[in-house]
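Blinded run. Sample ID left blank on purpose so nobody reads anything into the name before looking at the predicted structure. Input follows.
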Amino acid sequence: MTVQGSVWFYVVCAIWAVAVVGALIRATRFTYMVEARSGRPLLRNGLPGFANIVPVALNIGVARDEETQSLRREVVKRLLMILGGFVAFALFLAVAGQGEAA
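Blinded prediction complete.
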């Protein structure tokens, strides 16, 4: 692989990493909103505890009103985007690995 090719590999990896972290942060923010609407208790200092992304995505202990369910669907959408990003990145690595062997 040439130097220019390796630079593009690192650029694509960095863009992918930033996109996945951004999607995870957004999913976490939506999770906090869902938990606030579902009556989850706060910590003693008034701040929310850790975000329970999996129970929110699986609709466990979540309020059933339409707005909360809409926020929950946004969490699921972001998690599916992250999963799709990992699949796309695995395909990218497979293609990049084949180019290196040639």
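Unblinding after everyone has recorded impressions. Residues 66-101 form the longest helix (36 residues).
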